[in-house]
From TrEMBL:
The keyword Ion transport does not apply. InterPro entries: Ala-tRNA-synth_IIc_core, Ala-tRNA-synth_IIc_N, Alanyl-tRNA_Editing_Enzymes, Thr/Ala-tRNA-synth_IIc_edit, Transl_B-barrel_sf, tRNA_SAD. It is found in: Cytoplasm. One of its GO terms (cellular component) is cytoplasm. It comes from Cohaesibacter celericrescens. The keyword Acetylation does not apply. One of its GO terms (molecular function) is metal ion binding. It comes from the Bacteria. This is Alanine--tRNA ligase. PANTHER family: ALANYL-TRNA EDITING PROTEIN, ALANYL-TRNA EDITING PROTEIN AARSD1. GO terms for biological process: alanyl-tRNA aminoacylation. Residues 1-232 form the Alanyl-transfer RNA synthetases family profile domain. It holds the Pfam family tRNA-synt_2c.
Amino acid sequence: MTEELFRQDAYLTTCDATVLAVNDDGSIILDRTIFYITGGGQPGDSGYLEKQDGSHIDIVTTRKDRKTGALLHLAQDGQDGKVNAGDKVTCHINWETRYKYMRHHTALHLLSVVVPFAVTGGQIGAVESRLDFNIPDPDFDKEGLTEKLMALINQDHAVTMRWITDEEMDAQPELVKTMAVQPPRGSGKVRLVAIGDVDLQPCGGTHVKQTSEIGSVAVTKIENKGKQNRRIRIRFVD
Ligand SMILES: [Zn+2]
């Protein structure tokens, strides 16, 4: 099984690893990784593996194998066969993109604070991100939400993590805001992400350490997606 270093420290941009296996489709399994695995609305990381001879294998994305649960690093087409089990590699993620995901991801947590309704879906991007909410009767506009969101960001709250057991999680169902994404189970513990004293929810994604790192964002669209469903989009403001 692969050690998920990005869960403990989202700021790691490189790490040394050993290739455990290369599948028939060319996907690569490592003993440890800093590549975020696609999930919870956050895209998997891209980057490259550097071999000891200095050559690179480009990684286009990373995802979990549905059947085996293995974490798969997907190599660029045509680069199959460049690594073998036992090879030592250095992982490099595309940090510029990942950091944008971290900033957007943390901003979406805060969006769920200023829009206190059940989240039914979401997607994180490097340019734009969105959350879908179940809102019977919306009484807000883009400008008002942007103002509230920026107020929380500018309060520069610390973002911290702690782990609780599955049983403790079951005893606090109100922590789960995202109906579409249940917290990852199976390991016996669930990771909670706290933003100051304004937000606390289970999440396996990558976040910034302080909300000021998010920078300026704006709510750019509130779309009507069905009877009670509202899709709220945010973007960075440069
Ligand atoms: Zn999160």
